[in-house]
Amino acid sequence: MNEHTETRALVDELVELLTIEKRAADIYVGSPQEGGVGRVFGGQVLAQALQGAQASVEAGKTAHSLHAYFLRGGREGAPIEYRIERDFDGRSFANRRVVASQEGEDGTPVPILNLTASFQVPEDGLEHEDSPMPEVEGPDQLRPDMEIRREMADAMGDRLSDAQRTLMLRPRPIEMRTLDKLHWMNAAPRPPRAHTWFRAAASLPDDPALHRAIITYASDYTLLGTSALPHGLSWMRGELVGASLDHAIWFHRDARADEWLLYATDAPWSGGGRGFNRGRIFDTGGNLVASVAQEGMMRKRRSKS
Question: What is the SS3 assignment for 208?
Answer without folding.
Answer: helix
